[in-house]
Recover the amino acids of this structure.
């Protein structure tokens, strides 16, 4: 019977007044069938609009999709591990994810592919590239809008910090990183990519005490993926043009 699913769909779409009015009308199967089709179309349109909005607000560094990730090239990421990451259990548990490995191994691509999966699960993402973040924050600090920036990020399910350690973090940025991590605690996750092995992270901070506080919150309980191998870019450039290599993705 169509009556109950239609009523549920009206409630889901926030059309409670229409649901109450429909409940008082005599049941007409043709009307309910047509209404069910219209409500399905409206629901799909809303989902598509919301998906596009989440993708736009994420400001991802590159276009990537989980299905396009190259799992054949040996780099410490097999199919089982990738599927485990795609399950998003780490996100649901508000754990951080650390992608560490040499330049060109595909860390940023993997981060954006995971972000796409998160967005497809109707969760919010914000991508930040650390080498450029200093200029953005300097502008925010000049406008006294840093607190607003932190508050906005605190509502995001997944914050991506790409290329940690590529350039030194400015001293003014480092306390903000601690605040960002504090806001993430039990409320959201952080995905960080870095060329530096974990043992060199502490030296990236000018204050050892601050470094201890940041790394304790960042690394403790985090999911760590250590990638290896040669640059995917070099591999792509060296590969001869052939049908097998046309669609290779990092």
């Amino acid at each position: 019977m169509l009556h109950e699913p239609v009523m549920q769909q009206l409630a889901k779409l926030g059309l409670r007044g229409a649901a109450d009015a429909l409940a008082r009308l005599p049941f007409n199967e043709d009307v309910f069938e047509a209404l069910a089709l219209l409500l399905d179309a409206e629901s799909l349109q809303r989902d598509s609009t919301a998906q596009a909005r989440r993708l736009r607000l994420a400001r991802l560094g590159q276009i990537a999709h989980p299905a396009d990730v190259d799992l054949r090239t040996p780099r410490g990421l097999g199919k089982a591990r990738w599927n485990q990451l795609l399950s998003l259990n780490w996100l649901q548990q508000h754990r951080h994810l650390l992608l560490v490995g040499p330049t060109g191994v595909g860390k940023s691509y993997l981060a954006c592919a995971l972000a796409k999966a998160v967005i497809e699960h109707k969760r919010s993402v914000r991508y930040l590239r650390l080498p450029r973040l200093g200029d953005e924050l300097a502008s925010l600090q000049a406008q006294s809008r840093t607190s607003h920036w932190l508050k906005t990020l605190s509502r995001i399910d997944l914050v991506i910090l790409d290329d940690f350690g590529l350039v030194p973090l400015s001293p003014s940025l480092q306390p903000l990183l601690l605040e960002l991590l504090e806001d993430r605690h039990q409320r959201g996750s952080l995905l960080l990519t870095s060329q530096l092995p974990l043992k060199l992270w502490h030296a990236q901070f000018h204050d050892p005490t601050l470094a201890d506080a940041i790394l304790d919150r960042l690394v403790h309980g985090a999911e760590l993926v250590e990638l290896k191998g040669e640059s995917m870019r070099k591999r792509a450039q060296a590969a001869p043009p052939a049908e097998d290599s046309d669609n290779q993705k990092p």
